[in-house]
Amino acid sequence: MSFPSLTIGNIVAKMPIIQGGMGVGISLHRLAAAVAAEGGIGVIAGAMIGMRESDVAQDPIGANQRALTSEIRKARELTDGVIGVNIMVALTDFASLVRTAISERADVIFSGAGLPMELPKIWREMCDERKEDFRTCLVPIVSSARAATIICKKWLTRSGYMPDAFVVEGPKAGGHLGYKADEIDSPDNALEKIVPEVIDAVKAFEDRAGRLIPVIAAGGVYSGEDIHSFLKMGAAGVQMGTRFVATEECDADIRFKQAYVAAQKDDIAIIKSPVGMPGRAIKGRFIEAMEEGKKNFNCIFHCINTCNPEKSPYCIAAALLNAMKGNLERGFAFSGANVFRVDSITTVRELMSSLQREFDAAMDQVGLNFDSAMARLKA
Questions:
Q1: For residues 53 and 79, is the Cβ–Cβ distance under 8 A?
Q2: What strand order describes the sheet that includes 268-272?
Q3: Is there a domain that residue 231 lies in?
Q4: Which range marks the domain in which residue 26 is found?
Q5: Predicted model pTM
Q6: In CATH, what number is assigned to the domain containing residue 221?
Q7: Inside any domain, residue 351
Q8: Which of 12, 41, 90, 232 can pair with 113 through a Cys bridge, CB separation 3.0 to 4.6 Å?
Q9: How far is CA 266 from the centre of its chain?
């Protein structure tokens, strides 16, 4: 059986799989285009996207705008599939990146690391300025039904706009987490629990929107069997990040990918990030040095609103940039909780095919269980 399609606003993806946006150079046009070409939604991450621009230290906002424009256009040259952009609310150039993504006609903007209250306002301003009805879909990333409800109410009141979908990210995700450190392991925050809660919460707003508001499960989704479970639960699709790092098309250095393949369960740590949120990463010498209190910080990017250079032990942008380049002595790799299950580097096409096979097997098992139950009833 083929995967069901995923509809968000005016766009339709053949497969209900969104490749998570992984910032500071992990998911750029090559990875996003490869996923989109296979029928999923490929996502370019906006965080420090201009890192390779020659003037990034002098003009980070301009560098990021130019780089995002370039990455979207390069992805479009490679595929006519669905291309999205992930833009963190906490970025100092959030508004300029949103405007760039809309201007370049990205299919979707995914936005988390804070509540994206200004997102529809920026979209509407762009439509008014250009006298054009831009079709970019707006999708907040949340970690609770309460956050989803607040966004729906505020967007409707302020802009008359309802989210086109929600990504619900649980505490097994990689990178920055929308939970306090002591909330990460709480059963109340398990993805299996919060997805149904968000689905129920947004139902109250679907009548006002005059359409469905799809809910996408994210954070720890690893296999085709997982996809089957969340679709059965009522999710319209899933978002996966960790699985796509260990692919040939991922934009990171091979040493970054090999860190995923080599990672064991004990190598995964929850760290305190300068962003002010806990984050999940693979342990290494850099993290060990920071835990020992060694300071390694010189802020040149000013990329995150919530980062305090005077109190931060290191520059998160520089650390992630070094890691992306393969220099894991001077940085670290964010990862999801299931990174220890990654055992090889594959291609996006083979990964998508394997997810399909696992999904089919889960569907077949449901059929076998149903037939077995019916046989018992007849006996």
A1: no
A2: 175-176, 278-282, 268-272
A3: yes
A4: 6-251
A5: 0.91
A6: 3.20.20.70
A7: no
A8: 90
A9: 24
pLDDT tens digit string along 323-361?
888 888 888 899 999 999 999 999 999 999 999 999 999
- Give 326's DSSP letter: T
Half-sphere exposure of 173 (CA within 13 A, CB side): 31
Asked whether the beta carbons of 280 and 295 are under 8 A apart, the reply is no
Token output for 291: 């835990």
> How many domains does the chain fold into?
1
Q: Are 317 and 213 in contact (CB under 8 A)?
A: no
pLDDT tens track for 11-63 = 999 999 999 999 889 999 999 999 999 999 999 999 889 888 888 878 888 99
Contacts of 19 (CB under 8 A, 6+ apart): 27, 31, 32, 35, 40, 41, 42, 43, 239, 240, 241, 244
Amino acid occupying residue 15: M
Residues 6+ apart with CB under 8 A from 210: none
Provide CB contacts within 8 A for 92, sequence distance 6+.
61, 302, 303, 304, 305
Bridge partners, residue 12, by sequence: 7
Q: How confident is the model at residue 94 (pLDDT cuts 50, 70, 90)?
A: very high
Whole-angstrom distance, CA of residue 341 vs CA of residue 348 = 17
Classify residue 308: in a domain, yes or no: no
